[in-house]
Amino acid sequence: MTTIQLTLPDQLAQEAERAGLLSPESLEEWLRKQLKAKAAEQLFAAMDRMAAVNDPSYMSPEEVAEEIKAMRAERRAKACV
Q1: Rounded to an integer, what distance in angstroms lies between the CA atom of residue 44 and that of residue 50?
Q2: Alpha carbon separation from 23 to 1, 9, 16, 28, 30 (Å, rounded)
Q3: Is 20 left (phi over 0), alpha (psi -120 to 50) or beta?
Q4: Among 21, 34, 36, 65, which residue's Cβ finds the most Cβ atoms within 10 Å?
Q5: Distance spanning both ends of the chain, measured CA to CA
Q6: pTM of structure
Q7: Residues 3-53: pLDDT tens digits?
Q8: In this structure, are residues 21 and 30 in contact, taking their beta carbons and an 8 Å threshold?
Q9: Which residues contact 21 (CB under 8 A, 6 or more apart)?
Q10: Who contacts 20 (Cβ-Cβ below 8 Å, separation ≥6)?
C-alpha cells in the first residue's frame, strides 16, 4: 500500500472531508474512474490519428487477384525477353 500526501487549500480540504471525498475508498474509486477516462481518451485520440492517415483504400479480393494476375503476366513478359 502506498501513502500519498496532498496539499490542498484549507477550505477545499474541509469541504472534501465533510463530503467524505478524502476517505481511502473514495479516493481509490475516483482514481480508478480517472484512469478509465484517461484510457478512453487515449483510445479515441489514437482512433482520430488513424482516421487522419491517408492510406489507399482497401482492395477487394477480386482486385487483389487482378493485380496478382497482372504482376505475373509482367514477370512472364520480362522472362521471355
Answers
A1: 10
A2: 15, 17, 9, 9, 11
A3: left
A4: 21
A5: 75
A6: 0.59
A7: 999 999 999 999 999 999 999 999 999 999 999 999 999 999 999 998 888
A8: yes
A9: 27, 30
A10: 26
CA pair distance 21, 5, nearest whole angstrom? 15
The one-letter code for the residue type at 59 is M
Q: How many whole angstroms from its chain centre is CA 20?
A: 33
Question: Amino acid identity, residue 77?
Answer: A
- Is the separation of the CB atoms in 20 and 26 below 8 Å? yes
d(CA 68, CA 76): 12
Residue 58 one-letter amino acid = Y
C-alpha cell read off for 49? 490519428
Name the residue among 14, 10, 43, 16 with its Cα closest to residue 30.
16
